[in-house]
Amino acid sequence: MHILITIDHPIDTACALVIIFWLALVIQRLYFHPLSCFPGPPLAAITGFYRTYFEVIKGGEFLREIQNLHSLYGPVVRIGPNELHFNDYSAHAEIYSVGSQLTKDPSFYRCFGVDGSAFGAVNPCVSKIRRAFMNNFFSRRAMLQLEDMIRQKAVHLVSRLSNSKQPNNMFLAFRSATLDIITVHMFGHCVDALDHPDFCAPLLLDIQTAIPLLWTIKSFPWIATLYLFLPKGVGLHLHEQFRAFLNVRQTLIRWLNRSQSEAEAHPFLHDQSICHQIFNPFNKPCHAYPSMQPVFDEILSLIQAGSDTVGNTCTVGTFHVLNNDAVRLALVEELKANWPNDEDPIDLSVLQDLPYLTAVVKESLRLSHGFVSPLPRIVGPMGAYIAGHYIPPKTTVGISVTFVHLNPILFPNPTQFMPERWLQPSSTSLNKYLLSFSSGPRMCLGISMAWAELYMFFAYIFRKMDMRIVEFDISDFNDFKDYFVPIYGGGQLHVIRAEYA
Ligand code: HEM
Strands 83-86 and 396-398, how do they pair? Predict the structure, then answer.
């Protein structure tokens, strides 16, 4: 009889089976899942669409939701069927530090579309090989060779800004400088973003436009193949973002092909960029990047990791310095005392020894955060103890760095820009909580380049120019959306030379 019903009504039966399966899954996730003892909203325990709603539909709001959940449920919250988030700064070291065996979560990192890069490597052995190769180009020693080029870009930035009697968009200006630096380092050619009117280089604008696409691709990976067929009216934003994303890819492919031809034609070129070295036929075959696809993945990841991050830190820092006369005067005074003739070039090593400048850079890093999303890691087969809790194998865990950087116990008045907090006798113990670059085996590979750029830009900007803020208010930097990087509401920071203010 039962078999007869099945044959007579196959669609009904299929629907009934699907419903039974989903009900069983819901009950399992709520009551019998290894994470069911952790608090959190039932909907988040049942389905990943809880997160998708905040990331895609509400747009970059998941970090704010995590903050709400911690105030409701306490320091450990189940934010997905298989995922926990911690609001406990001790958890950061346990998840990300040197001894950590936890690995990157492939279901998250896949959405960047750079699986072949150092950033996209999930397997620790593969990551080691790629990081070892890339370290040749981003070590402290490598930065000494790049110091001149970074200084030239800082000089160029200042000359562009000081020749203008109009307000300058610092959001785009700093990103133009960092984009120029990373393109020279990658291709041996500069994209010359600093020379574009109003700092509106097409590559830079396309990178910015494409950023929100990240969460859409993470939740709906198939949309990348379908988008061409979507009617324009249905998703205008989506079309804009995809168009920008494809432009970025096409530009990079063109540049990559040019580097390959150059490397083959001139293998003994003196100044070799990253791509020239990879493609040089006389170098040993590069095991880290055996074909064109991983090389492409690497440059796509470097251009994103290397331009927006430093640009954001500089924009946030510049706002805070200009917003507080005492800070601005103390910084300028230190720079003048140690760099009396600003026509002379200044060495990075001199800047690195300046305590107030260093404190300004650290405070800028703290309040700009780096990547604001929790960086998800998977617990290994033995399980782990995090913040005093036993965490079962295969659980995804993470903590957004904002929970450390804005913790009032570590950083009293956490939203205030106070370089002095880094200048107290006890301040060295604070360094371990400045986690913009993350820590451990997967910490930022470009950290030396980032510090070099930050020192140079802050020193040149504040030693050579007297600026005032136009059209901006502090709430714009405290209120951001989370698209892996922070995206601020309101306008972009504009400044004008003091004599024209
Ligand atoms: C203020 C500037 C910067 C900040 C705050 C920053 C922050 C970070 C963070 C938090 C990570 C870890 C990401 C994760 O675990 O998923 C990371 C990784 C990485 N960063 Fe940076 N970064 C900065 C600048 C740069 C620059 C200038 C470059 C190079 C051009 C760079 C290249 C990389 C690479 C290749 C990785 C991947 C490392 C790995 O996964 O093993 N970053 N960065």
Answer: parallel
ipTM for this model: 0.99
84 forms beta bridges with: 78, 397
Q: What is the pLDDT along the chain (501 residues), one digit of tens a residue?
A: 454 455 677 888 889 999 999 999 999 999 999 999 999 999 999 999 999 999 999 999 999 999 999 999 999 999 999 999 999 999 999 999 878 889 999 999 999 999 999 999 999 999 999 999 999 999 999 999 999 999 999 999 999 999 999 999 999 999 999 999 999 999 999 999 999 999 999 999 999 999 999 999 999 888 777 776 666 666 667 788 888 999 999 999 999 999 999 888 887 776 679 999 898 888 877 778 888 999 999 999 999 988 899 999 999 999 999 999 999 999 999 999 999 999 999 999 999 999 999 999 999 999 999 999 999 999 999 999 999 999 999 999 999 999 999 999 999 999 999 999 999 988 889 999 999 999 999 999 999 999 999 999 999 999 999 999 997 776 778 789 999 999 998 789 999 999 887
CB-count exposure of residue 440 (10 Å: 0-12, 13-18, 19+): middle
For residue 119, report the distance from its CA to the centre of ligand 1, in Å.
Answer: 8
Distance CA 324, CA 331 (A): 11
How far is CA 307 from its chain centroid? 9
The closest residue, in CA terms, to atom 31 on ligand 1 is 446
The alpha carbon of 315 and the centre of ligand 1 are apart by a number of angstroms equal to 18
Q: Model-level pTM?
A: 0.94
Spacing, Cα 191 to ligand 1 middle (Å): 21
- Around ligand 1, the residues with Cβ closer than 6 Å are 118-119, 127, 131, 182, 302, 305-306, 309-310, 313, 370-371, 375, 436-438, 442, 444-446, 449-450
